[in-house]
Write a structure and sequence with these properties.
The chain is 39% helix and 16% strand. One of its GO terms (biological process) is cytoplasmic translation.
């Protein structure tokens, strides 16, 4: 009898995703659309633009590492800066009239 299970390619779930570098299916980093396994991410993190930061909490004195992506943080800061500019522009318009 032929094998009838898994005869079609998967479109969802962990079996449908693979690393874009080494085609591994384990340890996927999917955040920000990276679609890389964790080993390939660690090798290429600095080339992509991630910065590893050592952090320490004050209450429990535990140390941990964070990967930061500076350009993504600029995207979150930009709308606040734009609001400040628009508020300054409104004040300038009010002072002119």
């Amino acid at each position: 009898m032929t094998n009838l299970f898994n005869t079609r390619p998967k479109k969802f779930g962990p079996g449908s995703r693979q690393c874009r570098v080494c085609f591994n299916r384990h340890g996927m980093v999917r955040k920000y659309g990276l679609m890389m396994c964790r080993q390939c991410f660690r090798e290429r993190a600095s080339q992509i633009g991630f910065i590893k930061v050592r952090a320490e909490t004050s209450c429990s004195k535990t140390k941990f590492s964070l990967w930061l992506f500076p350009s993504l943080h600029r995207l979150f800061v930009y709308p606040v800066f734009r609001r400040e500019l628009s508020a300054a522009a409104l004040e300038h318009r009010r002072s002119e009239s």
